[in-house]
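Our preliminary data section would be incomplete without showing what the modeling component actually yields. Below, a chain of 80 amino acids is followed by its predicted structure, encoded as tokens that our downstream tools consume directly.
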Amino acid sequence: MMDKFQDAWEEELVRTGNNQCWYEERWYEEDLKTALKDAGVEITVANLKKLKKRCVHIFDDKSVRNEMLVEMARKMDGDR
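Predicted structure:
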């Protein structure tokens, strides 16, 4: 019963154009430490700050991600 309600609610959101966030990424300092380690760079507070500053806007260009969404939508064509 709850699934039918959830489906109807989601259909209404899609129909009315409610632009709801459906996915979110979070990056942590541990990810930066791993990147530094994998790159052979010493893990220090200074290097963490420098890498964080360099990485802040690396995901701003969503064109590649949008292309991936379109590709996944195309693959759905055979699912119908």
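Residues 2-16 form the longest helix (15 residues). The radius of gyration is 20 Å. Preliminary results of this kind motivate Aim 1 of the renewal.
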